């Protein structure tokens, strides 16, 4: 009987240990046998665009691409077109024509400039001179970046509203996963957009997976932070938050159990070649927040 201490504070650590042990045993045994192969937003007012901006002939569900913008006047024209298409979509939505509303909103979104890309940090450097050069380069690049203009903010606001409205259409069509994605896009431009946070939280609850319930919980907590203390929405959000916690824990246990079952099946397929199975390995709490593993035949 051999005993090995494995540090683990959750089912994930236990799963990882089981999978690592199975792989290690398989590799070692194979090497010994040469025969085995080694919310509320104000819309910009504007005049309606040309008829070519209408989304009536756009196939529902067709995604459009953001327009390339060359000048300020082009941006204004695109804002006008997008606002017109937003109003068109809202008219369809109020009439209960969800697919048509979705097409109009998507077409309007495609008329807007692309969102500015956020620069990501470079990988860590071991050489001090390289780090210094990178820092100097970032400072130089930062000096050349232009701050957001009022027009940029107007574009971001409208893009956020259109994405949130796209999410509302997906909700009506019973497409919760797509609604979550659309609301996530809306929150990229406005992280405190109350309607988008509410909608994403609600749809994440409907998906009812471990990860989606974590997302719902996070969104409800964010809403409680951004809403004023006297907001009439707070009581319902608190109730929703309280109901999510036990469901999240149940989903975690269920999905972890399923994962362990699949890993055991995988491990048995390897260990079976050597007359072993995962049942030969017993895990027991060690009283210190970890587990002891016992091996026996």
TrEMBL record:
InterPro entries given in the database record: TPR-like_helical_dom_sf, TPR_domain_protein, TPR_rpt
Composition bias, Low complexity: 35-46
Biased composition (Acidic residues): 136-146
Residue numbers spanned by region Disordered: 32-74, 113-152
Domain of life (superkingdom): Eukaryota
Name assigned to this protein: TPR-like protein
Species whose genome carries this gene: Schizopora paradoxa
């Amino acid at each position: 009987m051999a005993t090995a201490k494995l540090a683990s504070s959750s089912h994930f650590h236990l799963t990882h240990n089981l999978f690592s042990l199975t792989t290690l045993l398989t590799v070692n045994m194979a090497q010994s046998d040469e025969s085995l192969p080694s919310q509320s937003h104000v819309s910009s007012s504007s005049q309606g665009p040309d008829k070519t901006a209408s989304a009536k002939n756009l196939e529902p569900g067709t995604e459009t691409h953001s327009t390339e913008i060359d000048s300020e006047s082009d941006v204004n024209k695109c804002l006008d077109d997008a606002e017109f298409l937003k109003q068109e979509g809202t008219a369809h939505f109020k009439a209960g024509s969800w697919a048509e509303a979705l097409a109009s909103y998507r077409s309007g979104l495609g008329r807007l400039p692309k969102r500015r890309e956020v620069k990501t940090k470079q990988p860590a450097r071991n050489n001090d001179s390289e780090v210094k050069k990178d820092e100097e380069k970032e400072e130089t690049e930062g000096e050349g970046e232009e701050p957001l203009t009022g027009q940029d903010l107007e574009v971001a606001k409208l893009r956020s509203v259109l994405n949130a409205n796209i999410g509302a259409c997906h909700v009506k069509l019973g497409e919760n996963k797509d609604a979550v994605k659309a609301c996530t896009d809306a929150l990229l431009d406005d992280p405190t957009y109350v309607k988008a946070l509410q909608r994403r939280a609600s749809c994440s609850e409907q998906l009812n997976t471990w990860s989606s319930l974590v997302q719902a919980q996070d969104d409800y907590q964010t809403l409680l932070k951004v809403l004023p203390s006297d907001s009439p929405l707070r009581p319902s959000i608190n109730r929703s938050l309280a109901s999510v916690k036990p469901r999240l824990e149940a989903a975690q246990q269920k999905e972890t159990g399923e994962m362990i079952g699949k890993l055991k099946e995988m491990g048995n397929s390897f260990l079976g070649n050597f007359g072993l199975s995962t049942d030969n390995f017993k895990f027991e709490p060690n009283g210190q927040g970890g587990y002891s593993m016992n091996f026996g035949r």
